[in-house]
Design brief:
Blueprint: H1 11-24, E1 30-34, H2 40-47, E2 52-56, E3 68-69, E4 83-87, H3 93-99, E5 105-108, H4 121-134, E6 139-143, E7 152-156
């Protein structure tokens, strides 16, 4: 990866891609890399792990050979994918969290695009987790093996929603 310039720890792409493969294996095929910028995570998922991944990012400046859907991601788009990833998705953080109502997600927030209030890393994570609790989404925190402090993710699975028996 030394040929490409990235902000932050370049190991984050390999770490998240390995997590996806270890966690989901062949249970997912189509993956959205939301606000994936140049598409390095998507490239690794495609080349190393053979997933059908595309970057969904309105900026449209992916690396050569990385599929790109030049659009702002909306939660309603999650229906097309088996898994939605948001690795430091900036303004798309809330949309990735909303996608958790429909599909499994891996969200690693970096900046507070969640609320107008100033939120630090821990407060941001708690705010997103509160949203998941309010929508009955099962989630877990995961610390990824790359340089922090923005290396904590929230993994969801709507197929395991908390349900109360009311029938």
């Amino acid at each position: 990866m030394s040929r490409h310039r990235f902000h932050g720890d370049p190991e984050r792409f390999e770490a998240v891609a390995s997590f996806v493969n270890d966690r989901y294996g062949a249970t997912v095929r189509f993956i959205a890399d939301v606000a994936g910028g140049q598409g390095m995570l998507c490239r690794i998922l495609r080349k190393k792990f053979n997933y059908d991944c595309e970057v969904v990012d309105s900026r449209g400046w992916t690396l050569k050979g990385v599929p790109n859907r030049q659009a702002d991601f909306a939660p309603s788009m999650a229906d097309y994918y088996d898994l939605v990833l948001g690795l430091h998705p900036d303004q798309a953080t809330r949309a990735v969290a909303g996608a958790a109502l429909l599909r499994p997600t891996v969200l690693v927030p970096c900046c507070n695009f969640w609320s107008d209030s100033k939120l630090g890393r821990d407060e941001l994570l708690e705010a997103i987790e509160t949203y998941y609790r309010e929508h009955d989404i099962v989630f877990e925190r995961v610390v990824f093996p790359f340089k922090g402090p923005k290396n904590i993710g929230i993994v969801t699975d709507p197929g395991n929603r908390n349900r109360t028996s009311g029938c």
